[in-house]
UniProtKB/TrEMBL annotation:
Organism of derivation: Adhaeribacter arboris
InterPro entries documented for this protein: Glyas_Bleomycin-R_OHBP_Dase, MeMalonyl-CoA_epimerase, MMCE/EMCE_epimerase, VOC_core
Transmembrane segments: none
Record-linked Pfam families: Glyoxalase_4
Residue span(s) of domain VOC: 3-131
GO molecular function, one term: methylmalonyl-CoA epimerase activity
Keywords tagged on the record: Metal-binding
Family: Belongs to the methylmalonyl-CoA epimerase family.
Matching NCBIfam families: metmalonyl_epim
BP terms from Gene Ontology: L-methylmalonyl-CoA metabolic process
Keyword Electron transport: no
Protein name: Methylmalonyl-CoA epimerase
Keyword Metal-binding belongs to the record: yes
PROSITE patterns named in the record: VOC (PS51819)
Length: 133
């Protein structure tokens, strides 16, 4: 794992959250993107070498909608940049971690992603991110 790629924050209202994080970080989001497969709209902010990703549900059946309903708004996941996502997935599987994806899938911000179940990581949802080539 190379670095923290981003921290994902689940929000109810993306426009309102964008205003809040624009004030906090002193800059506007550099990208807003819909991820139809996950039923979310995302905004990305730069924060040094890392990023903040705001995630808002576009459908009541999305994982983010369920997360907010169960836990409220707040930190959803921490993402780590990796060079070879399949190798990292294999390494973590062999170490006994439970992955939520059998294979990498397309994610936001031109990434291939895989999630590690929070039950095997002390309650924190971990995302592996590899830049798509």
């Amino acid at each position: 794992m190379n670095k923290i790629e981003h921290i994902g924050i689940a929000v109810q209202n993306l426009e309102k959250a964008n205003l809040i994080y624009t004030q906090i970080l002193g800059s506007e989001p550099y990208k807003t993107e819909q991820v139809a497969s996950e039923k979310v709209m995302t905004s990305f902010f730069r924060c040094g070498e890392s990023k903040i990703e705001l995630l808002a549900a576009t459908d009541e059946t999305s994982v983010i909608a369920g997360f907010i309903q169960k836990r409220g708004e707040g930190m959803h996941h921490i993402a780590f940049a990796v060079e070879d996502i399949e190798a990292e997935m294999n390494r973590l599987r062999q170490a006994g971690f439970t992955l939520l994806n059998e294979t990498p899938k397309p994610g936001a911000d031109n990434k291939l992603v895989c999630f590690v179940h929070p039950k095997s990581t002390n309650g924190v949802l971990i995302e592996l991110c590899q830049e798509r080539r």
